[in-house]
Amino acid sequence: MKGYAGKLLRFDLSKGRAQVQPLPEELVRDYIGGRGFVAKLLWDELPSGADPLGPENLLIIATGPLSGHLLPASGKTHFGAKSPVNGGYADANMGGHFGPALKYAGFDLVILTGRAAEPSLLVIDDGKVELRPAGDRWGMGALEAEERLKDDLGREFELLTIGPAGERKVRFACLSHDFGRQAGRCGLGAVLGSKNLKALAVRGTGSLQVHDLKGLYAKAKVAYAKIKAKPGFKGWTPEGTAGITDWVNQVGAFPTRNFQTSFFPGHRAINGRAVVERLKLTDKGCFCCPTPCGKYGHTRTSLGEAFVEGPEYESIALLGGNLELKTIEEVGYANFLCDQLGLDTISAGAVASFAMECFEKGLITEKDLGRKIAFGSLSSAAFLFDLMARREGLGDLLAEGVKIAAERIGRGSAGFAIQVKGLEWSGYECRNAPGMMLSYLTADVGAHHNRSWALGQDVAGSAASVHDLITAGGKGERMAKAKVGGQAAKVIELQHLRPLFDILGICRLQYMELGFEVVHYEDLFGLVTGRKMSWEELLKVSEKVWHLTRAFSVREVPGFGRAHDLPPARFFTEPVPTGPNQGHLLKRAELERLLDEYYAARGWDENGLPEPKTLEKVGLEDVAAALESA
Ligand code: SF4
């Protein structure tokens, strides 16, 4: 088991009791790490029907075999639970230094169960594990709590915290780390809050064994040099993901005014260049990263000033275009507020824009809120974020996310509640991007871009990397009229590829943004673990995990199926009003054909349920049997 710390920590918060076990060999053999561990353990150990915000839910923290080793961008950690958003499968990935510290403390995996009797802090200090009262930190912002806990414990501790949103179980509360890194999606901050846990602190001073240290050292040196020699290296790193803003707008995919349109005329005031010129103080990266995409900076607005990491692209899209904030300083401040309150910037931006549109349409009023709200107003955004994070007044409803809020508000609001499976849509409008649309609809957690980013294929047909796409493949072009044929196969390929990085415990951006070749990851995996697995064999594990997460949602969500893979009515009924994709509308018949094609290619039935023979083929015989007998 080279490359792994070799131990699993279970902590029952109700009993305050830790149990340390060897990392199961078959878990490592069959699921490798990270997202694979999360999916398998949720399937095996979560009591079926558990309340996502009850003590029986599991919060799983999983590193991968490559996490924490001296090789490029190996700082990733994966988190998972039964979803507080939709009751199905949920996970989120985070950069920084937490996962490496956990492995140096001796643990590849942590499984939290139960609920602490009082607001608490779990300290993992090498092999020692202790639950401590943290009532004095309850109510603090996530960033502030991190700072205070580092003061208390020592700067060398790595912290995972929640803000007031997590404490109040807001369904899009995030987990926060390293003053600006988050496991943002799926409301995992609410799960930690439901366990009465304000924070985890980890200090690890141990070391990890690898299969071939000399070989790894030599290979890692080559890998760093190769990444730095990539044509996109110098262009991409200074702005990070924010650098894609202009391109997404130019191809007509930039969410604007609650996804009413896909082109934001004011994009230059909030793009990557604006981040660098007006906010950035320094680059900030995760553990061992040669391409630090974090931009740590300072912002000053009419509401106040703050230090903030970012905004990265998704925050620019959902807080900038979608709320129509006018300057990068305003977007940066909105980003800071979300980080401090412990809100996922994607969902918080989406919920605020939904509320603003409801207000414009008279579905919620000044009487409901005590003030007016409007697109383009930082003060409105700040007011709404605070209201939701504290669940005050109408904020209590908005804290449930746009799907549930729309069900209660009614009067057609579900049509512009932009979500899939209850998870708010991230930063790409796709009425004219069928591949990206299919990616969102079929992503296991809901409308999240990180499962498969097919926008490049929609625009240019193919792209070796995002950098190639931007510099050569489609600047200012309208989207290609993609044919239905082939879209499903491409999306499936991407859905195995991208999550594989979350299994390995490594960042995918060097591959995705710069085209760093997968063969290097094969080599690194072999040198660390001693296992010879080709990229194709690793992708087979990722494929198995994809079927397993779908099966989990089938087991846990009553009536789960095709109806959960549909977008809101806006995309069928309202043509894009402005920009390069003006006039485009999603055709329902085309979408249904895409889903048919996707399900058939997956080996799922026409309702989107995995066929028993498909599950058996990928080694999930027990899962097939369990679903059949349910
Ligand atoms: Fe972290 Fe960004 Fe580097 Fe990836 S590219 S490891 S997210 S700093």
Protein traits:
alpha+beta; 4-stranded mixed sheet; 630 residues; binds iron/sulfur cluster; single chain; 42% helix; Aldehyde Ferredoxin Oxidoreductase,  A, domain 1; 3 domains; 28 helices; 6-stranded mixed sheet; Aldehyde Ferredoxin Oxidoreductase Protein, subunit A, domain 2; Aldehyde Ferredoxin Oxidoreductase Protein, subunit A, domain 3
Question: What is the averaged pLDDT score?
Answer: 95
CATH topology of the largest domain: Aldehyde Ferredoxin Oxidoreductase,  A, domain 1
Question: What is the 3D form?
Answer: globular
Task: Give the biggest beta sheet.
Answer: 6 strands, mixed
* Sequence stretches where pLDDT stays below 50 over 5 or more residues: 472-484
Number of strands: 17
**In percent, how helical is the residue content?**
40-55%
What oligomeric state is this? single chain
CATH superfamily of the largest domain: Aldehyde ferredoxin oxidoreductase, N-terminal domain
Structural topology:
Layout lengths: L6 E6 L4 E6 L2 H7 L2 H12 L13 E4 L14 E6 L6 E6 L3 H7 L4 E5 L6 E6 L2 E6 L8 H12 L4 E4 L2 H4 L7 E3 L3 E3 L4 H7 L2 E7 L9 H17 L3 H4 L8 H6 L21 H7 L1 E5 L9 E8 L2 E6 L3 H9 L6 H14 L3 H16 L5 H4 L8 H12 L5 H4 L3 H8 L9 E2 L2 E2 L9 H9 L12 H6 L5 H8 L13 H18 L4 H6 L3 H12 L5 H22 L13 H4 L14 H15 L9 H6 L3 H9 L1
Parallel strand pairs: 1-6, 7-12
Antiparallel strand pairs: 1-2, 3-4, 3-6, 4-5, 7-8, 9-12, 10-11, 13-14, 14-15, 16-17
Helix pairs in contact: 1-2, 2-21, 2-24, 7-23, 11-12, 11-13, 12-15, 13-15, 18-21, 21-24, 21-26
The structure holds iron/sulfur cluster.
The site of iron/sulfur cluster (SF4) has 12 residues, from loops.
